[in-house]
Amino acid sequence: MIRHPALDRAARLGVRLGLDKVRTFLTVLGEPHLCAPAVHVAGTNGKGSVCSFVTQILIRAGLRVGTTLSPHVQQLNERVQIDGQPVGDAELTELLEHIERARRQWAADAGLDEQSLTYFEMAICAAFLGFARNAVDVQVVEVGLGGRLDATNVVSPVVCAVPHIGLDHQAILGDSLGQIAAEKAGIFEAGVPVVLGPVVPEAKQVLLRAAQQLDCPVWAPPTLRKEVRRDGTVRLYTPLGSVGPLRLGLQGAHQASNALVALGVAHRLREAGFPLSDEAIEEGLRHATAPCRLERIVAGVVLDGAHNPDGAKVLATWLAKQPAVSHRTLLFGMGSERDPVALVQPLVDHVDAIVTTRCSHPRARDPEDLADALRDVHADVRAGGAIEQALPEVMEQSDETVVTGSLFVAGAARSLLSSTEEVR
Q1: 234 and 99: one domain?
Q2: What pLDDT does 232 receive?
Q3: Structural domain tally of the chain?
Q4: Do 144 and 201 lie in a common domain?
Q5: Which stretches within 214-277 are classed as H helix?
Q6: d(Cα 131, Cα 80) in Å, to the nearest integer?
Q7: Which of 110, 273, 286, 397 has the most crowded CB, counting CB atoms within 10 A?
């Protein structure tokens, strides 16, 4: 499922942070968000990867797992996953229609405006309702935006995690790393263990102070430790033990840090009584997958959802270690609210040309405007068409095509490539 009329109407509200309405509405639904304990994951980058690692660990331990990710990459269904698989269209349609009927009645009874919930609020309610109906043992919940006022911040967490803090969504979350960290720390709850990735000192101080105020035990580097070996395998350590050496299911040197956070979460869960064996943990780390994270689904194309400067730097580091190709093109598309120069600058030295594009997302930036914004970047830049046109053209002209700029544009390319492979 790509879209639903109820969500299309809700999308007109845009972003609205706050918990009062969604918490009240979930009560009307019977509090499905409390159907199972949650692993709650916030952060600027790495959230989706940590959720994927944790989900696979829990599945291999024999637990029934509900996972909600944001944003979705190709299909809306990705926001409601049971045991790592998105629910089918029929189930998702029924969930959304149940929620829409309940929402209309609730709004009428309470005298609220006609569209009383945002797109994200409706989608997360669908996830919680789906988890309750499928009787999951644990929920793995990725924060949508920030943390403190994010609609996911209604769950009952058994572990909270923050893999990374960077500058993103400054207009909403704040201009400094400390301000952004304070918003992410809003998911912490009294006495609930917290696992941190290698966040920068400015952000780490804020996170540690917030955890201390709530008496949350914290694991963070150097208490958490990793060894990356020359053969690409990793060994990971927490105060409760180690795993490895093993080869991670997700590509990129940065994934060792995400896997370390996931291991910390797993060991905290085991400490809380969840039956997670070392074998289940290692198998989960080995077999985790996440679409559009340094992903190759066809030869000559790399898909990556880098959508902020830190993500672009990770992609640049990975490209620098890849075998040389005679002509590599960056197929670049992004939302209208972001700075394209900050994203492209780390990548310029690793590509031979840049072609701008757009997907069908309503906030996607026009390729001509995007190319004009990049006019001062020292690179061969030209405007392309929509992704459906630009992708095959660039693939025809290049030895390697790197699609990035947002998860939406990478996801659109993935859908096109997947349908082509199915036809073949």
Answers
A1: yes
A2: 86
A3: 2
A4: yes
A5: 255-271
A6: 8
A7: 286
Q: What is the dihedral of CA 401, 405, 408, 413, to 10 degrees?
A: -10
pLDDT at 230: 87
Q: Find out whether 241 and 279 touch, Cβ atoms under 8 Å.
A: no
**Segments in the chain below pLDDT 50:** 422-424
Reply yes or no: is the peptide bond before residue 346 cis, omega within 30 of 0: no
CA distances (Å), 352 to each of 43, 155, 295, 382, in order?
32, 46, 20, 12
Domain that holds residue 373: 301-423
CATH of the domain at 114: 3.40.1190.10
Residue 151, Cα to own-chain centre: how many angstroms? Answer: 15
pLDDT value at position 363? 83
Residue 74, Cα to own-chain centre: how many angstroms?
A: 13
pLDDT of residue 145: 86
Q: Final residue of a domain: which of 228, 258, 287?
A: 287
Nearest to 239 by CA among 189, 192, 195, 190: 195
User: Residue type for 423, please?
Assistant: V
Q: CATH number of the domain that 361 lies in?
A: 3.90.190.20
Distance of alpha carbon 32 from alpha carbon 394, whole angstroms:
46
Q: What is the DSSP string of 381-407?
A: EEEEEEHHHHHHHHHHH-SEEEEESSH
Contact between 387 and 409 (Cβ < 8 Å): yes
Choose one of 263, 287, 311: the last residue of a domain. 287
Quote the pLDDT of residue 220. Answer: 97
Location of structure tokens 């996607």: 364
* Residue 296 forms part of a structural domain: no
